[in-house]
Amino acid sequence: MTDSKYFTTTKKGEIFELKAELNSDKKEKKKEAVKKVIASMTVGKDVSALFPDVVNCMQTDNLELKKLVYLYLMNYAKSQPDMAIMAVNTFVKDCEDPNPLIRALAVRTMGCIRVDKITEYLCEPLRKCLKDEDPYVRKTAAVCVAKLHDINAQLVEDQGFLDTLKDLISDSNPMVVANAVAALSEIAESHPNSNLLDLNPQSINKLLTALNECTEWGQIFILDCLANYTPRDDRESQSICERVTPRLSHANSAVVLSAVKVLMKFMEMLPKDLDYYGTLLKKLAPPLVTLLSAEPELQYVALRNINLIVQKRPEILKHEMKVFFVKYNDPIYVKLEKLDIMIRLASQANIAQVLAELKEYATEVDVDFVRKAVRAIGRCAIKVEQSAERCVSTLLDLIQTKVNYVVQEAIVVIKDIFRKYPNKYESVIATLCENLDSLDEPEARAAMIWIVGEYAERIDNADELLESFLEGFHDESTQVQLQLLTAIVKLFLKKPTETQELVQQVLSLATQDSDNPDLRDRGYIYWRLLSTDPVAAKEVVLAEKPLISEETDLIEPTLLEELICHIGTLASVYHKPPSAFVEGSRGVMHKRLPARTGSGEGTECPDVGNAAGGSAPEAAPSIIPSQGDLLGDLLNLDLPAVLLPLMGAGFGAAPAVMPASLNAPVGGGLGDLFDLGGGVGMPMGAYIPPKTVWLPAMKAKGLEISGTFARRAGVIQMELVLTNKAMSVMTDFAIQFNRNSFGLAPAGPLQVLTPLGPNQTIEVSLPLSTVGPVMKMDPLNNLQVAVKNNIDVFYFSCQYPISMLFVEDGKMERQVFLATWKDIPNDNESQFQIQDCHLNSEAASNKLQGSNIFTIAKRTVEGQDMLYMSIKLSNGIWVLAELKVQAGNPNYTISLKCRAPEVSQCVFQCYEAVLKN
Amino acid sequence: MQLPAKMIHSLFLVNSSGDIFLEKHWKSVVSRSVCDYFFEAQERASEPENVPPVIPTPHHYLISVLRHRIYFVAVIQSEVPPLFVIEFLHRVVDTFQDYFGVCTEAAIKDNVVVVYELLEEMLDNGFPLATESNILKELIKPPTILRTVVNTITGSTNVGEQLPTGQLSVVPWRRTGVKYTNNEAYFDVVEEIDAIIDKSGSTITAEIQGVIDACVKLTGMPDLTLSFMNPRLLDDVSFHPCVRFKRWEAERILSFIPPDGNFRLLSYHVSCQNLVAIPVYVKHNITFREGSSQGRFELTLGPKQTMGKGLEAVLISSQLPRGVLNTNLNPSQGTYNFDPVTKLLSWDVGKINPQKLPSLKGSMSLQAGASKPDENPTINIQFKIQQSALSGLKVNRLDMYGEKYKPFKGIKYMTKAGKFQVRT
Predict the structure, then answer these.
(1) Phi and psi for A137 in degrees, rounded to 5?
(2) B168: nearest CB among A135, A319, A364
(3) Which pLDDT does position B89 carry in this prediction?
(4) How many CB atoms lie within 10 A of CB A750?
(5) Residue A441: which of A473, A487, A408 has the closest Cα?
């Protein structure tokens, strides 16, 4: 006696049989027939031919039969619009039925029938149902408005249904409120600019009240709607957070995650010294952990979101590392996500545990997972310096297992470790070389070749090793070919005598026998470089490489902020902005986190992204941004690539350079504005070194350039004085910088608007940006400049005071300062003496502040003033300083601590310059 | 122009052999060919449970859950919170199980009309409508053999004619007019311990997932309070909506008007930061020697911190390395089985007698000439401990207000192994 009987058919043909039964006089038989029709529908059979017969069964007082017919109608009305019209009368009648269940059912079904003719008839019944005395009918009608809007938006607006819907937000029944919110949110999505959900403190209050009483699904709608609101101030923000936190204990994980979204967004506005802020942080961890004990599908979505949350606020889960440990029977998609989060949470405190786990994972069965685990070990080494040694030895252990893909993956990550810690772990090279033959993946081969080339002088048989790769040169992938070319050139430069033949061989393979333009070009460049100036070639090819950054795959901050606003959505699962991938989402507005409001926080730095608790400095990027795996390799090339165009024809083509004769009024005005800004905003005035001659006239066919650098109102300026000491007029000035340590680049063209006559002088100020290409220079603050005029191109280098890179929000919080000071290893500390300085500590502090060196705290010990200061560079590097000033002693002692200790020397020079001027 | 459809568009039910055996569309019909993308993913996955839960296709997203070896595949067309969909799908499965006793392909096919009515009732235009089992049962009566017979004879229906009473009240989870002759309220405190134990026997991570499941059959509108001896253990809890959160926050007392019948009152999580007692230990010696075609296998189990309660229904399973051809093992008790195809070893131990510890010893034969396996097998343990909650959680008292009668009350404790793994 089960429903499976509805699937059996007879020989005569199913449709025929059903037709007869549907038209039977017996009620029972009719009902059974409709059930058979529905059963066919559930397995995707086409029973639309029965439309008129089924519709005929609609006029009945049997609720079950009516429901079944409605089900059928919804499925097929669209393909039979003319027939569907027959049903309208019954619908309209049912909307007046005394039983609210039937009224709701009718209005609900009508809304699902996407046939224009029917929607016209729907308006009146819908209007009545929206004002029905029974809340069950009202809440059904609310959803119906969204359905109707989907079919005919204009109609809904003309009929004033949107206003009625807005009124329902104030309904006495929470279920009705929730459904009205859901319907409005859906409609608002297709009208991004309409002010449908007019969120104000009153309506927010209503929503918060309804939140406590409506069903779990309604809570999700309301929370998602709340997340779109921007509170007026931190107090309102806090009060909303307080009312939302109980949702964190809900059994429905979607409710929990929506609540997390609201809290993550609104806590952005809370002052961090507020007790409540800390409480909230603590409250967020347990529900996130609980999500991980749910079904694997839920875990997956939760993990993708946690990945975002730990990037934004690592402090929330920093003690919860263990819940991310992988169980061997977790589905693979859960394993991979957990691994990712483990790396993000890895720190000095837990690295031993993490490594032990990763090593365990590297012996599992699943190849993808094992590879990722090995890669993770490498990432740990790069992220947590103290663990590097242990990571390397773990990787060596893994290489000993001789499992092919483990070995290859290990070699790829060891290359990165060499990049991060040069000249530290070269002892392992021998072990690596043993595995040369087993490498069959391009990435691993390329990594190995890079290592051999880079350390050629320490590998006795480097030439043999590289030669062995050369045999099958044309069968290798481009990645390997390029790497091999560079490695052999490096080898040649290091051991020229023995390897001449080899280098010739590779150059001819690359330039003559290859179809690959990249390979050919690189081959030619090396060839010419080697033949014209071997010394220059050495400088270029064996140049010191920039360090690679700690975390490679962090989500870019603006995207991260947007994704945080979309926690729980598909966007958060794919880590892509919502506009990027969902079909039909037109005009999606980009959401941003609210800015912190200022109450009681005047001194705090506005840089929210970096200010997150004690971990700010950890998040700060290291000196050079990562440029991907091929970096080491490309860098060898990039230098000539930049220098070459500087030398001739390429100059005019550079996009940043505009012919000076072209009068650009906007740009000119801009320059003036910046000039004007100089006097404003800085009480003390930043230190500006006196102008010096950078390019004497003798070296530049009569053009003399002197200048200096300044930071005015947050803008870095290069102030130049151009003097024409030649006999002819100079025009068409342009300027370009070579890559430099901090990415300085002209923010606009050089504004020399009139031709410069003989013996004329002009002062120009050139605003600079710090977003240009980066290359480490020696000394660090060296800047190579090319200036062009109608006569020729001239080069000079100058050194800028690093103080002009000190940004205005460089004041660190005290706790953060303390934590960071302790956290930076002592090796990174350097001490300097500043002699003959006669300022007291107060005056010194004021003077330094003018150059964005901020005093955070002062302590007096035995007549000695200790000033603690912080500096933030334009590329996010923090420098912490301790300045000791003893009354009556003109010699100061200064200790500098920084994660990138190479800047210390320059910073010290600035201290000296600022204090003595 | 077709506007983006919100929420869940369609649902397909797919069995383990990859056939669609039910489809339901809440909006226009989506061709079942959309599932081809799912089948592709299914083919790629090494194990059924490895199919990714969110799959993008050119025009839709497929969000699926796997339960009872059936994939429930929801089709969505625009931005919908995936957790919302997954939670809803789980609710669908729970409802089916509730209605039909089991959630199998056969049961669903046997009740296809009820299934269809249920799905229609649970979702309207993609918005969840009624998902509380109490309300659903008033709208659509669960099939029983008796009712089917009666319906056939009398021609009455299995669809409720009245608006469910609970639907709009302040306590939507409870219907009015409940009546029982025997009033009873039973609570089961069930804890599952998840743990990873390393080679040397020390705990890497251990956590407890606990739930309190209730079966409440009380007349009228009873208002219950439940208090604990040690509520402090519960700092990470998820409640059934009936629990008054404010009261819990203030007094650490659970106060609620219960739904009628079976429901989960709360679930909780005791994290690895608290000390979790490990109730069982394993001594193992699983070794392969290079160049030998034999491996040794020795396993001994024993009780650890069980608070004097016995370990029951102990079951060991382990995925042995691929290189193992067969095993020749000797269990001191229970039965063991090794499947040479899947390489799955399982040993049904039964009870552990602390005086005579169970062991499984013997040899494994390996492929001749093959190198020794790289991976070490992980041992999975299942067990039960009756009358004890491992975290030590204890109910203090259960009181009823609002009704005059005296109910029967009962509280049971049980501990089970969840994902309890020992690395070797």
Answers:
(1) -70, -40
(2) A135
(3) 94
(4) 24
(5) A408
Mean pLDDT rounded to a whole number for chain A: 80
Q: How confident is the model at residue B330 (pLDDT cuts 50, 70, 90)?
A: very high
Report which of B226, B268, B216, B264 is spatially closest to residue B247, judged by C-alpha positions: B226
Which of B6, B20, B162 minimises the CB distance to A101? B162
Q: Say which of A68, A182, A298 has its CB closest to residue B83.
A: A298
pLDDT band for A627, please (50, 70, 90 cuts): very low
What is the mean predicted confidence (pLDDT) over A306-325?
91
Q: What are phi and psi of B27, to 5 degrees?
A: -120, -140
Which residues on chain B are in Cβ contact (under 8 Å) with A182? 127
Angle at A531 between CA A529 and CA A533, to 5 degrees: 60
3-state helix, strand, coil in chain B (%, to 5): 20, 40, 40
Q: Do A332 and B272 touch (CB under 8 A)?
A: no
Q: Which residues does chain A have within 8 Å of residue B50's beta carbon, measured at their own beta carbons?
A: 331-333
Residue B237 above 80 pLDDT?
yes
Residues in A closer than 8 angstroms to B63, CB to CB, are 297
Q: Which of B158, B172, B374 is facing A403, going by the closest CB pair? A: B374
| Res. B251: pLDDT tops 70 | yes
Q: Which residue of B has its CA nearest to A29?
A: B155
Rounded to 5°, the CA angle A816-A820-A823 comes to: 145
Cβ atoms within 10 A of the Cβ of A1, count? 11
Nearest residue, CB atoms, B81 vs list A111, A250, A254: A254
Extended beta strands in A623-714, E state: 692-695, 703-712
Is B53–A175 a contact, with Cβ atoms under 8 angstroms apart? no
The tokens describing A100, both together, are 């609210």
Looking at residue A626, its pLDDT comes to 36
Residue from the list A153, A254, A290 with its beta carbon closest to the beta carbon of B87: A254
| Dihedral of alpha carbons B136, B142, B148, B150, sign | negative
Inter-chain touch B113–A150, beta carbons under 8 Å: no
Band of pLDDT at residue A875, cut at 50, 70 and 90 = confident
Residue A614 banded pLDDT, cuts 50, 70, 90: very low
Residues in A closer than 8 angstroms to B322, CB to CB, are 365
Closest CA to A50 of A38, A59, A60: A38
Q: How far is B50 from chain A (nearest CA, A)?
A: 5
Q: Do B157 and A63 touch (CB under 8 A)?
A: yes
User: Residue B157 and residue A251: Cβ atoms within 8 Å?
Assistant: no
Q: Do A136 and B50 touch (CB under 8 A)?
A: no
Judging contacts by C-beta atoms under 8 Å, the chain B residues touching residue A332 are 45-46, 50
**Residues in chain A closer than 8 A to B82 (CB atoms):** 301, 568-570, 573
- B48-103 per-position pLDDT tens digit: 889 999 998 888 899 999 999 999 999 988 778 899 999 999 999 999 998 888 89
In the chain, the amino acid numbered B61 is Y
Across the beta sheet with B20-25, what order do the strands follow?
Answer: B20-25, B8-14, B70-76, B61-67, B54-56
Cis peptide before B128 (omega within 30 of 0): no
- Following DSSP, what letter does each residue of A19-63 receive, concatenated? HHHHT-S-HHHHHHHHHHHHHHHHTT---GGGHHHHHHT-S-S-H
Asked if the model's pLDDT at residue A637 lies above 80, the reply is: no
List CB contacts (< 8 A) between B22 and chain A.
Answer: 42-43
pLDDT at res. B14: 94
**pLDDT band for position A648 (cuts 50, 70, 90):** very low
pTM above 0.80, yes or no: no
State pLDDT tens for residues B97-127: 988 888 999 999 888 888 988 998 888 877 7
